[in-house]
Amino acid sequence: MHFVNTLGARSTGFEAVVDGTLVATPIQGSITVNNAEAYLASCLAGLGIIQVPRLGVVDLLARGEIVEVLPQCAAPSMPLTLMYANRRNLPRRVQAVMNWLAEVVGEHLAGDGVVSEGVAR
Question: Is 33 part of any domain?
């Protein structure tokens, strides 16, 4: 399976860091999608392996609905960005969401620090 931002684009393939360098290995896939829900649903339907951020599948991994494969071939970490209107005085509700998000993400990533991994059903 392949994930691309724009349908019709070519997938970079399986990404992994080898000796400190990002390596993209072309792989064959029977389906190409451009949204995370379809990508994950395809995996859950048994159509192949996917490479996704751990944070998005931590519950599925815990329940055994998907399993980790090739943990030694983790992709590089992806940034997580929270965008908000630039204001001199940040509203409390925005600060509360920022703090909550940092706590939730921190809990999930504290274990091993791995953000991206290949998973399969």
Answer: yes
